[in-house]
């Protein structure tokens, strides 16, 4: 399924790689740390252009929510862009997936909360954030793999 993944690169890249390895996400790769730094070093306009190009033909934007995702400037930008472009948006919590170096993480804040819409609504009250079940990392992995397509279908867009 062609979706754009939004996440905190520095903290969650290994967790995101596990999701990519499931085979549920089409056409998404993770930039190497060096490539991401290269894009960032070209300035905000270059990052915005890169994001626009990556999102262009995706049907949804899935925010992979780790412990610090909600505080990331570019995640916030990606959420706002997706919403304004009329793409489906949703969140999937990934703190329960073990990073080989750091293990499981703590649950982070809802990255949609606090984003106000023109009508005064809060995006955090509208956009679903799914919390995979499982007693351990393997269980969480299985839950994400089993539910991925259903969750993406339940994402909401501005036109909804």
What descriptive keywords fit this protein?
160 residues; Rossmann fold; four-stranded parallel β-sheet; 5 helices; 4 strands
Describe this structure in words.
This protein is α/β, with parallel strands linked by helices. It has a single domain (3-153), classed as Rossmann fold (3-Layer(aba) Sandwich). Helix content is 39%, strand content 11%. It contains five helices and four strands; from the N terminus they run βαααβαββα. The chain has helices at residues 9-21, 33-41, 44-55, 73-84, 137-153; strands at residues 3-6, 60-65, 88-93, 129-130. The chain has a four-stranded parallel β-sheet with strand order 1-2-3-4, sandwiched between helices. The longest helix is centred in the C-terminal third of the chain and has 17 residues, at 137-153. The model has no long low-confidence stretch (mean pLDDT 90).
Brief characterization of the structure:
With 160 residues, the protein is α/β, with parallel strands linked by helices. The chain has one domain: Rossmann fold, CATH 3.40.50.
């Amino acid at each position: 399924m062609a979706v754009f993944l939004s996440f905190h690169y520095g903290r969650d890249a290994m967790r995101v790689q596990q999701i990519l390895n499931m085979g549920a996400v089409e056409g998404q790769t993770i930039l190497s740390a060096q490539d991401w730094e290269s894009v960032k070093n070209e300035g905000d306009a270059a990052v915005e252009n890169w994001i626009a190009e990556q999102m262009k033909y995706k049907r949804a934007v899935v925010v992979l929510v780790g412990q610090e995702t909600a505080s990331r400037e570019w995640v916030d930008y990606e959420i706002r862009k997706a919403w304004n472009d009329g793409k489906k948006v949703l969140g999937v919590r990934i703190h329960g997936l073990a990073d080989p170096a750091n293990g499981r993480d703590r649950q982070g804040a809802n990255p949609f909360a606090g984003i106000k819409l023109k009508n005064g609504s809060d995006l955090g009250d509208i956009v679903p954030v799914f919390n995979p079940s499982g007693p351990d990392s393997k269980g969480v992995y299985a839950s994400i793999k089993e539910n991925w397509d259903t969750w993406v279908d339940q994402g909401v867009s501005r036109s909804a």
